[in-house]
Amino acid sequence: MEQKPGRGWGVVAGLAMAAMVFSVLSPGLLIFLPLSLMLVALPPRRPGLVALGAILAGAAFTGAARDALWYFERGWALVLGAWFVFFVVAWPSARFISRALAALAAAAASAALVLARLPSGWRNLDWTLSRRVRDAAADAASVWAGATSLGDWAAQVAGSLYRVAEIQVIIQPALAALASMAALGVAWWAYRRLSVRDRAPLGSLREFRFRDDLIWVLIVGILLVVLPLGESAVRAGSNLLAFMGALYMLRGVAVLLVLLGVHGAGGAIVAAVALFLLYPVVLTASVVLGVTDTWFDLRARRSAVRPGS
Known about the structure:
Number of helices: 13
Strand content: under 5%
Largest sheet: none
Order of helices and strands: HHHHHHHHHHHHH
Helix content: over 70%
């Protein structure tokens, strides 16, 4: 029996959570500024939706500017959203993931050009974002350290938060990129649901895939880390590996759900429980499956073996 497409609540909830967890920038801005551009610039341009888009954009710029990061957060979200709208119009046959990756690459190139023209632009931004990560870790650690009833376990958790924060500092560009992709997914889902009543704007997790030639980005990341090219190259490679590793992990999870024959919301639940209980094994296996799917298209092989599945 053919299954009716779901509403995609599980996928969009997972994307919203990813945007909140990964982002060193404001997840609200990453979601609502691109959404406002979609509502205003893309058809069907209903008056009510255009007004909603204008309200969302206006709300993002209310209040006095506090520092350079205030401008960067809003500028990044606007440029990201503008590039995504451009690729929606210029690339009508593409899937969401292709448009989102293209918009992310174009926005990153635009930001790099702007930062290159500012004195110590990237260094100042990196320092500001790193301070935000460390301050958040310090606040969380102080809460755990104050939980004297938990004894040594609370102190261990507090120490782990500092170690995780240092990892976040190193790969914060990759985390910001992943959060931006997730936020674009939420914005696209909301736009399609509001404008054309699309039941499944993003499809299911089982269908997640992206261009196979992006494997070269992963290979470049490995080379930058392995070859003796200096600290900057190692950090750049680490960010490429973190970003592509997350994408290949999701692709591997999609393959695994197809191989196991898991459908609907059950797939997300199974993936979440497995990752929580056996995260080192599941994480590694998912990345390996995702990379392998680049060459062998494991889901197509599964369909060929079981045509009626």
